[in-house]
Amino acid sequence: MGSVINVLLPIFGLILAGYICRRTRRLGATAASELNRFVVWLCLPALLFESTANASWAAIWHPGFIAVSVLSTLGVFILTLACRLRGPLGLTDASIDALGASYANTGYIGIPLCVLVLGDEGLVPALIATLVVVCVLFGVAVVCVEIGLQAERTLSQAVVKVLSALVRNPLVVAPAVGGVWAASGLTLIEPAAKFLHLMGLATTPCALVSLGAFLAQSKGIHARGAPGLVALKLVAQPALAWVLAAYVFDLPLFWAQAALLLAALPTGTGPYMLAEFYHREASVVSSTILLSTLGSLLTLSFCLYLIAS
How far is CA 106 from the centre of its chain? Predict the structure, then answer.
């Protein structure tokens, strides 16, 4: 458990910093929203572009592991979306909740934890999982949200509006342009590469401080709906990933262990950023992030015990 605590403590520290600064009014009433806009329009697009533009496709091409990551992630997303749509939520809010149940914190927790547990070789599966989460899952969620927002229009109007919104969305454009850049074989000039790297580094701390500020001005943890999302994230997703890795795709032990570890990660800040970006209620997803991070102290420790045994 010590290894997990060492990785998770900085996350709680950043959330707490945002919480304290907002409660003591060192940050203003709009700090959570403005910090989030900074992340969505500048930091996260830079990170997404850098990740895809610098990706070595030969190094990360592991079809079995990619299939496990995509199926376990989208499987939980689709299951949660279907369950939420049976209730009073529309497609937009249901999509954000579904993202909360399936969006693993692969970047900030997954990469250091995999390297710590699996050695330097653990960086490759962590990178693959990160690309799946921030490109595939996030892209699907954005499409669902945009469709939900245009549901009141006619089909032709909705299609045009959704496509137009996606073309202008930095979270969709950045990885797409990055992928084209990587395919072109071009390299970034050093100043541009450093700019993107520095901007990308600000993504996680700013998002977590924004989350803390949001929690400070909300009415506390919103348990309604959050525990179910936490259970799906910390129990259902790793269980599905292990079944797929060990019994369906019969991955080598190293890759199966990596799939389990990465699927058991708590919810990242992506759902909160999306909710704030589209001006939707963020209480449930912010509570999901906080509760799943706390709960992952136990679930990740259990996964580490299985890997060590």
Answer: 7
Residue type, 144: C
Which of 309, 9, 258 is CA-nearest to residue 117?
258
Residue 8, Cβ density class (10 Å: 0-12 exposed, 13-18 middle, ≥19 buried): buried
pTM of the predicted structure, to 2 decimals: 0.76
- Give the three-state DSSP class for 267: strand
Separation CA 264–CA 111 (nearest Å): 13
Q: Tell me: the pLDDT tens digits for 246-290?
A: 999 999 999 999 999 999 998 988 888 888 888 887 788 888 888
Tally helices (H) and strands (E) across the chain. Answer: 18, 0
Question: Which structural domains are found in the chain, ordered by start?
Answer: 2-308 (1.20.1530.20)
Strands (E), 59-120: none
Provide the strand spans (E) within the chain: none
Both tokens assigned to 182: 């990587």
